[in-house]
Write a structure and sequence with these properties.
The structure is a homodimer of 334-residue chains. By secondary structure, chain A is α/β, with parallel strands linked by helices. Chain A has 2 domains: 2-122 and 298-328, Quinone Oxidoreductase, Chain A, domain 1, CATH 3.90.180; 126-274, Rossmann fold. Chain A is built from 10 helices and 15 strands. In chain A, strands 3, 4, 5, 6, 7, 14 and 15 form a 7-stranded mixed sheet that branches. In chain A, strands 10-9-8-11-12-13 form a 6-stranded parallel sheet, with helices on both faces. In chain A, strand 9 (170-175), helix 4 (178-188) and strand 10 (192-195) form a beta-alpha-beta unit. The interface between A and B is medium-sized, with 33 and 33 residues.
């Protein structure tokens, strides 16, 4: 049997336990040219909220009744495809299900097995590449600049902080809770941390960024985006990397201070890591190099069991996690 | 005597007749190294609203009791400065007053007298340069792209439309009233016009830009910005050139659809023409060339008399004008 998490209905506001349901379907027969991958880990990401909305986005919506879209790493368990062998490890959009049968086009092979598999869904996957291209290509940091990051303890934010330090910038992170904030500094090398749960963010911003902000790497949207606009320096840049505070809102809140972009000749730009596909390999090589040199670390928070997909998804928004959220669908063999 | 328009109080919301008052002061004596310019024309611009606000902007606020800041063209009437001769024509920030005495640093000389003086405050002044650098350097239009312009019949918008056509783009303009819209097409070469006073702008946008918008040149902000975001094409650009609908609002309305910048990998960027000072001469030469070739025209709306400063300023926002608003402070000699 193949267990699958299937979209049940389009959520209004925050998804509920009824948004998805668990289905068991008989395993399909493998046809000529196909490969069957057992999914081991699945990446759980805020963008999944957008995928189940009807509105226009960068990918078509997940259909009602379809398997929930997700990036996974998995292992080939049977194959009628000349390019794959049983035991090969792969990563790609396998979906939240035990087994993905496909013509193989969705998969990329994992060459090295010295790196833990889950890292291919975090620092060596979309998360790491999002931090890399968002900060370097959209933000274009210069040595000595001050960079503010929201969601700084999160999967992307923790990597942005470290890459910013590698570039010689002063890094200020916003996160929720004293422990997370401590960790920003001790673990990810941030120069200063703002605890949005116990501090007045605006006062803290004025204190930690007295001369303003050169780059704001926005993982949350909402009020913090407005504050960052208000503190933007001349020629400041705002990197829009999703906006967690907005995903579940029926009516988005626009940044009232956007006119700061005129006054300060600022730039606010969105990006999607998918657009950089041609540069993935080069970027991953650089990231792996920084990892080897000990300049870049990543943490993964692994939840166990396909039946726990929804509680895992909820943790994206409650902040009750440490590192990149990953769902273990099946235990790794070996 | 020197008549001056002086800032009386900081307006809350839209300025009133009490925001400024007319003062007559004795003419100052000219000291060694100074030059006295009689102001002929003054440029009346939406950005003046920002200059009288207390809040941080790209220039310090005009102080209460100070002469209202304005770009002017004028004529040297007396001089103790070796660089100026009586009869020289100059342009610079002379302010709303009959006579400006200064050390000369604020002035640039007007070399050619074959071009009407008022053009140095419109197409050959900040207005033309704003259209030029905003569209070309921030918008970066490519041949065949669709460009939407709000305030399309205004001083900047009418020039943006013509430069866009020179670049081979499809130009769609938004303006208020059937006559203005007709003029967009017949006079400024727009391909299509939307009358925001009589049409549903959203429906008209869908009709005139069925495949979306590559560049939105935003002169007004507010709802139209949100609609443009909703119709933005992949890699679309939004040029923020002030936002007339927002200048007088106590609380700005932020663009709720800004997440379109993520979905479409879009860019929203502000600019100030002042930042391009080094390139003014080159740009003005190109603009003058297009004027000579008959590809680029400009219209000026001249109001007469320093005492009419406030009614002239009001016309910026009521739309009751045709072309660049200019106040004649003193009649040109000749």
């Amino acid at each position: 049997m193949n267990r699958q998490i299937v979209l049940n209905e389009r959520p209004v506001g925050f998804p509920t336990a009824d948004t998805w349901h668990l289905l068991e379907v008989p395993e399909k027969k493998l046809r000529e040219g196909e490969v069957n991958v057992k999914n081991i880990y699945a990446s759980i990401d805020p963008t999944m909220r957008g995928w189940v909305s009807e509105r226009k986005s960068y990918l078509p919506p997940v259909e009602i009744g379809a398997v929930m879209r997700a990036l996974t790493v998995g292992e080939v368990v049977s194959t009628k495809h000349p390019g794959f062998q049983v035991g090969d490890y792969v990563h790609g959009p396998g979906g939240i299900q035990d087994f993905s049968i496909s013509n193989g086009e969705i998969w990329r092979k994992i060459e090295s097995t010295s790196i833990p598999l889950e890292k291919y869904l975090s620092i060596l996957g979309m998360t790491g590449l999002t931090a890399y291209f968002g900060l370097l290509d959209i933000g274009k940091p210069k040595e000595g600049e001050t960079i503010l990051v929201s969601g700084a303890g999160g999967a992307v934010g923790s990597i942005v902080g470290q890459i910013g330090k590698i570039m010689g910038c002063r890094m200020v992170g916003i996160a929720g809770g004293a422990e997370k904030c401590k960790r920003l500094i001790s673990h990810y090398g941030y120069d200063a941390a703002i605890d949005y749960k116990s501090e007045n963010v605006w006062s803290a911003l004025k204190k930690t960024c007295p001369e303003g902000i050169d780059i704001y790497f926005d993982n949350v949207g909402g009020e913090v985006l407005d504050m960052a606009l208000a503190k933007l320096k001349l020629k400041g840049r705002i990197v829009l990397c999703g906006a967690i505070s907005q995903y579940n809102a029926d009516k988005n809140q626009g940044p009232a201070n956007y006119m700061s972009l005129v006054i300060n000749r600022g730039r606010m730009e969105g990006f999607l890591v998918m657009d950089y596909a041609k540069e993935y390999r080069k970027a991953a090589t650089e990231i792996a190099g920084w990892m080897r040199e000990g300049k870049l670390i990543s943490d993964e928070h692994i939840e166990i069991g396909i039946e726990n997909f929804f509680p895992a998804f909820q943790k994206l928004f409650t902040g009750n996690k440490r590192g990149k959220l990953i769902l273990q669908i099946n235990p790794p063999t070996s």
